[in-house]
Design brief:
single chain, 129 residues, alpha+beta, Ribosomal Protein S8, Chain: A, domain 1, 3-stranded antiparallel β-sheet, 4 helices, 32% helix, globular
């Protein structure tokens, strides 16, 4: 049994990137996983994401473009106020303005830079660089 579908998906993506594969298949696919993948695609870390449904559930086929050095989830999901992002950038990202942290805010999932410009806080979900 799987407890965290997002952590499992990020782990599969990371393992496929390390192995040099051009795509990976993720299952099960939750709305959170789909939104995180769309954010990674918007920021040029992933290629196209194809969704297929069958009798066992929804599968996502993710095209890998070799842009990910490391990605993962943040556990526990730390709450962050609008002025505290720099502290977590130092912990999860290797350099300033390199990579992204995905934050769950009251306005939905977004990157930490978007949350800073919109002056929102939230909970940290995952990181990628």
């Amino acid at each position: 049994m799987m407890n965290d579908t997002l952590a499992n998906s990020m782990s599969k993506i990371m393992n496929a990137e390390k192995a040099g594969k051009d795509h990976c298949t993720l299952m099960p696919a939750s709305n959170t996983v789909k939104r995180v993948l769309s954010i990674l695609k918007e920021n040029m870390y992933l290629g196209d994401v194809e969704e297929t449904k069958d009798s066992r559930g929804t599968r996502l086929k993710v095209a890998l473009i070799g842009a990910i050095n490391k990605c993962g989830t943040i556990k526990p999901r730390f709450p962050v106020k609008k002025g505290e992002f720099e502290r977590f950038e130092k912990v999860y990202l290797p350099a300033k303005d390199f990579g992204l942290i995905i934050v769950s805010t009251s306005k939905g999932l977004m990157t930490h830079t978007e949350a800073k410009t919109k002056r929102l806080g939230g909970k940290l979900i995952s990181y990628c660089y």
